[in-house]
Design a protein that fits this description.
The complex is a heterodimer of chains A (149) and B (143). By secondary structure, chain A is an alpha+beta fold. Chain A has a domain of 92 residues: Thiol Ester Dehydrase, Chain A (Roll), CATH 3.10.129. Chain A contains four helices and six strands. The model of chain A has no long low-confidence stretch (mean pLDDT 93). By secondary structure, chain B is of the alpha+beta class. Chain B has a six-stranded antiparallel beta sheet with strand order 1-2-5-6-7-3. Classes of the chains: A alpha+beta (149), B alpha+beta (143).
């Protein structure tokens, strides 16, 4: 049984305002075992993530963390910030690789907060590597969950 | 059911592949564990999970044909997900994937539409892959 998005119609008093920042969240480190585990679970066994020689062959210094593994950090990061939201859209551009062993820091801010027709936030997000390098520039739309999941 | 067709009327639209998928709890759970410890109260099916269907054994031959050259390696350039309904565990869905290949630079764009078996629209996602020549591929200059 598939359910429609369980979104609420009215916002709580602490609903974020435009310009508010999102609590940073850290993930990783993503060592070789984490990348191998993700490759197995996701089916994304592109050799550039697992084989240093394949990474070098496309001009990288070392196997990069899967882009989708980094992108998968956004949803839990947002839920750590607010447990009462549901993410309805997420888009991102992969700008720089994070090498195996690196960490990912998720940060962001509220670009637009609206209340009608239902509480909704447009968020601008970043995923950055251990040296602050910008790995993913992303945007998400979140809504207030109808019932706290 | 899997069916791949080439849209003869609009070849630039690429290859269209339809498949039946299931959000098997064990597989979804393994994926959730691989992306990190599941958060309390997190959705049963992680937002990014549908990407796994693109790399499934049923889809891989079409993906490889769409890339068209084993000397090219795909590099993820952009990704998006849009949901109108939540995906639930141990449910069956119908997925339509459209593979569009472009050149200069070499890219493959995969658009996916996910619906219930009753035809209710659930989500869509789009994957943009930059196709990079392997420097060590036979017959290629090391540029």
């Amino acid at each position: 049984m598939t359910e429609a998005m369980p979104i609420a119609e009215s916002a709580p008093a602490d609903w974020p305002k435009t310009g508010e920042t999102i609590a940073p969240a850290a993930f990783g480190p993503f060592g070789p075992a984490r990348l191998a585990g993700y490759a197995l679970a996701s089916g994304d066994d592109n050799p550039i993530h697992l084989d240093p020689a394949a990474a070098v062959a496309v001009g990288l210094e070392a196997p990069p963390v899967h882009g989708m593994l980094m992108m998968s950090c956004f949803e839990p990061a947002l839920r750590r910030w607010r447990g009462d939201i549901v993410v309805t859209s997420l888009s991102g551009k992969f700008l720089r690789p994070i090498s195996v062993g690196g960490t990912v820091a998720i940060t962001g801010r509220v670009a637009r907060s609206s209340l009608a027709p239902h509480p909704e936030l447009l968020l601008r997000l970043k995923a950055q590597g251990p040296n602050g390098e910008l790995a993913i520039l992303a945007e998400a739309t979140v809504r207030l969950a109808a019932v706290a999941p | 059911m899997i069916a791949a067709t080439i849209d003869a009327a609009a070849p630039e639209a690429g290859v269209r592949l339809e498949l039946a998928v299931r959000t098997e709890a064990a597989r979804v759970g393994a994926f959730a564990a691989a992306i990190g410890a599941p958060e309390p109260g997190a959705p049963a099916v992680p937002l990014t999970y549908p990407f796994c269907w693109m790399t499934s054994p049923e889809v891989r031959p079409t993906l490889e044909r769409a890339i068209g050259d084993s000397a090219l390696l795909p590099i993820h350039e952009a990704q998006s997900f849009d949901y109108v309904r939540v995906l639930t565990l141990d449910a069956d869905y119908h997925v339509v994937l459209t593979f569009t290949r472009t050149s200069a630079p070499e890219r493959l764009t995969v658009a996916a539409a996910i619906a219930t078996l009753a035809g209710e629209r659930c989500a869509k996602f789009e994957t943009v892959l930059r196709l990079v020549p392997r420097a060590d591929a036979p017959g290629r200059a090391n540029d």
